[in-house]
Specification:
Two copies of one chain form a homodimer. Chain A is α/β, with parallel strands linked by helices. In chain A, 40% of the residues lie in helices and 26% in strands. Chain A has helices at residues 6-18, 21-28, 32-46, 62-86, 106-113, 132-140, 177-183, 204-215, 229-237, 250-257, 284-291, and strands at 51-54, 57-60, 93-101, 122-130, 146-149, 161-176, 195-199, 221-226, 243-246, 259-277. The longest helix of chain A has 25 residues, at 62-86. Chain A starts with 5 loop residues before the first helix and ends in an 11-residue tail after the last helix. Chain A binds a DNA duplex through residues 7, 20-22, 30-38, 40, 53, 55-58.
DNA sequence: ACCAACACTTCGGTTTTATCGGACAAAAAC
DNA sequence: GTTTTTGTCCGATAAAACCGAAGTGTTGGT
């Protein structure tokens, strides 16, 4: 419980700025007695005195100086709030602040988010990328409305969040044309010794890929590990190695990266989760996003 | 004037978190009528509705969603304030947050600040370095108590600040022993063609140096320009070129940088200013700092 | 289709809080 | 010493926050 009276804090802030209760009372159009009284109430509640008598004026104590720093930020935010609400550019547009975890394919994120544009409203997407933990923290602070990631939020964490699996996407192996030609015959055995780019172990998919490779008895030459899928794709486009991607994106990958599917990794699928704040009132666009039922774009196992 | 009622905002914040007025009323130990009434007052004052009726519950409007983001930060700061004040480590120590402009000699800053340690109190110095403009902004936000810099604050700026000249420091030319030996004879003519390190044009001293060089008819070879004086000193210590510094620091420069004074630059002196917030109640350590009267350590002109 | 349960609003009256006038104390200026 | 300035204490008053009772609209069950 926040036992801080912001009205009192505001008076304190003005007094500190003006340098005296008298001038603060003038600026606030109040009697000095009011300021004095409310200020001593604040000090009582905080358990610290904020001003010390100095001559016939006031001096800030160290506690007061610290409080002043916070008060500054607080009332600046208050002004910003009022201003943001009065700015007219947010009349008919719905803002959706999405955090996209580094590891998940950007094209997949795009496809999943496309559902929100079908809403009968102007939607402005505000995208942010970063590490899983960072994004969760931003979610808790309401800087984000939803996070798209490859794993559910840790249960029992100190953050109250809500994870919804958006879908399973069967994974395949892709590569530039030259690479694919060389390894097409005898898949998956042909992968043995072939150059390959993989996500780092931070990615939940990575362990599934490793297991699949082991079960199929192939040991590709791992030429790179990437935290960020977009970076991985760029390297893959240049023919540096084969890489994995959702089979559902085969068409776009061919168009944008000039890479073809070599084969499916049976049993390996990427799970995408939408993590949002667990409060009853959720963002309408997040509702739409989660409502897009977990339709497996391709069955997980063949 | 900040026409935002933070008490109302707090109720709004709890309602948004809990998802309903009923549950918020429970958490706040208030009747639902109160919440309802205070919330509609907030909406009236802001001129926007924050909630829209949805079914028998509530839904945040876009304005409400934006407000929620601000409220989050505001009440987090409020908690932080209370916590900071209750933490015991600030009992008998006075914190002085000083911003030191890139260009001014660090040793000079140290010497000027040493006066605050003579106060009959434990003083904890918190130093920050950076660009002039950045530091001024931090000053305005009360993240700093005073800024030490080489020029007064711009008059008529939108920030209300107070500049006090702390002193004029006659400047000389210094260099590593080998360099000084080579150019000692016939100073200042011997500077012609000598390698030299100078502050960039952002430094107020630079133009005075340039004028002095011109007036004395010497054209050194400028081998480097530095924004940061500490970096300049490091290069100077390695004998890369001659450099300028306050003559008053000759002793320390000899000790710490192994450099000797070559000669004085008559008429060139570094002005150091303390810029602080213009409010009546100033930091006691800042008072002490400014009280150290503008004693010219060496007269400006010989 | 109807009724009960639920969630919020509206309208008084009551309680709490904030505010101000008057009297007072302390420091500084004269 | 007197006056001026600045802040504090006390009691009355104005403003706000709060709650009980009654009312509207929505949902869900039968």
């Amino acid at each position: 419980m926040n036992n801080l009276n912001f009205k009192h804090l505001y008076y304190f802030w003005v007094v500190a700025q003006e340098g005296s209760m008298t001038r603060a009372a003038e600026r606030l159009d109040l009697a000095i007695q009011t300021i004095s009284g409310q200020l001593s109430l604040l000090e009582r509640q905080l358990g610290k005195s904020l001003f010390a008598a100095q001559g016939r004026g006031l001096a800030l104590t160290e506690a007061g100086r610290q409080a002043l720093g916070y008060a500054d930020q607080i009332f600046q935010l208050g002004d910003a709030l009022v201003e943001a609400l009065n700015s007219s550019d947010n009349e008919n547009t719905l803002r959706l602040r999405v955090g996209i975890s580094d590891g998940i394919p950007k094209l997949l994120a795009y496809r999943l988010l496309s559902s929100v544009y079908k809403m009968p409203l102007d939607v402005r997407l505000i995208c942010d990328e970063g590490e899983f933990e960072t994004l969760l923290a931003d979610l808790a602070l309401h800087r984000l409305d939803v996070v798209l990631t490859d794993r559910p939020a840790p249960i029992g964490g100190n953050l109250k969040v809500f994870s919804k699996r958006l879908g399973d996407f069967a994974t395949g192996i892709f590569g530039s044309v030259s690479l694919v030609d060389r390894t097409k015959a005898g898949f998956p055995q042909s992968l043995d010794g072939a150059p390959m780019l993989l996500p780092t172990r931070h990615n939940a998919l990575r362990s599934r890929i490793d297991r699949w490779l082991e079960q199929n008895g192939v040991r590709p030459r791992i030429v790179g590990e990437f935290e960020d899928s977009a970076l991985l794709n760029t390297f893959g486009r240049e023919g540096l190695g084969l890489f994995t991607a959702p089979l559902a994106l085969a068409e776009q990958i061919a168009e944008q990266l000039g890479a073809q599917a070599l084969g499916a990794m049976n049993g390996v699928s990427e799970h995408i989760y939408a993590i949002s704040n667990e409060r009853r009132i959720r963002h309408p666009a997040v509702e739409v996003l989660c409502a897009a039922s977990p339709q497996d774009e391709t069955p997980a196992a063949v």
